[in-house]
Here is the input.
Amino acid sequence: MSDPRKITRLIQLMGLAGVVLLFLVPVIGSRALVQDLFGVLTLLILAQNWNLLAGFAGLVSVGQQAFVGVGAYAMFACVILLGMDPLVGIAVGGVAAMLLAIPMAFFSFRLAGAYFAIGTWVVAEITRLCFAQWKALGGGTGTSLPKGTTKTMFGVPEIKSWLGGSSSAASDALTYWLALILALATLIAAYLFLKSRMGLGLQALRDNEEAARSVGVNPTRLKAWVFMLTAFGTGLCGALLFIQITRVTPEAAFSVLDWTAFVIFITVIGGIGTLPGPIIGVIVFYFLQRTLADYGTVYLIVLGCLGIAVMLFARRGLWGLFTEKTGIELLSLRQLPPTENQAR
Amino acid sequence: MEPILSTHGLTAHYGDFQALFGVDIDVRQGETIAIIGANGAGKSTLMRAITGLLQNAPDAITLRGEGIGALSAPEVLERGISMVPEGRRLFPSLSVEENLLIGGHTRTGNGVWNLETVYEIVPILKERRDHPGTALSGGQQQMVAIGRALMSNPDVLLCDELSLGLAPVVIKEIYASFPKIKERGASVVVVEQDIGQAMKIADRVYCMMEGRVTLQGRPDELSREDIHNAYFGVAS
Here is the structure.
């Protein structure tokens, strides 16, 4: 059988080629493909953040839609009320979500396990109801970005003159590239974080909480950091999503189904607690969506059944199953034994 | 000499079950203390209480006169007490080097212990620094656990059942590293079921039975019979 290390290297090279190809999609692909892949990439960003939260820090939140919604509303507020460029609004959206994470952690960290999950959901619902009262941004019915905002935002005219085509297509290309960069940055940041001193503490906590505490790892402080950082990433993604959608309502921005349930599904089937897991999950999700889109509710039933099957028969997800069967590891945080010529 | 670490009438409970009944021990600067006793005597519970894994009244445990009984495990470590836990408890996700590094996660102290000095006393660990911690032999894993505890440069090093599950020759090697650890300034408390080993390395010995200290003294002061009585609760 071939050496798993060689296959791993091959997969890494293919991954790299895939990334280059993804960067070229707005140049060589159709606008519909760009829009489709934008959706996939934003789901991937949300899944990577939720994976870090639940898979590594053990914080199973079902209130991540709160950060998407706050990110989106903060971006709309920046554009509509303060006249800022939407791209600045994305950064503000991330910061606003991180600020929301502070009181949210204050309440929900007093709860554990299932109660924590319910607590985060309740806080998300309260946040949604609060934003539905914000009359300047349309209250319960929501609002749209002023006409032409996305066509004139920073970078769009340049992309338009470079690629040709319409301003809308250039705007789609820009948001797509931003989503791709954010997805890659999240993956790299998660890997570096997990290899840092704090990340070592997080992995130690996952291995054995009591032993980790006895070497000085403070579980609450560490988990609070992860909660805030993933809120930032989720908020950035929320703002970016709604630049492309151009219209926000409390129901859409704080949708538990779109921004948390699908995200949990993607992470669980891909492989929770592994970095490649959400990538595999989002690919499977995308193809299922494409294949079953015409079957209405059957689509959701199939998704549910697949999720249950994976949880029952491949607890570490499809990536975990693949790793187990082939010995191939990618972005592994576990230490591999050295090869024979390295070992003495 | 004033003790650096003391317990004062220390009690501990697991739910309704009381595991310690008024335990008093003193550890002085630079001393090696051995705590001996049969299974279930309360030795490991005493270690867990001192390291903050079991909460207690603030003044039930004092370090340099400061009450630390109510502090959490990370806070106790920050003040200078670290532990080599029973069963080593290395982190399987981490390499040998990462297992050592996490020992200095929150406190690196001002002492001499760092990666290089730990590798100096156990050179094999440097060779295997990239291996998973749990892929080493039992003795090497124990040395990683000791190194991990030293990385915070503790004033007091607690070692819980170092010899558990290890071959006698390996145990001898592990204890051979103790003089090097002691000469760099730490006080050491060793929990040990092997009475002979404990007598060899300790300046003073405490014997525990059913959650109480039943005997204490210098190894040369204690007769075989005293120890037998204190260990098993019956005359030999």
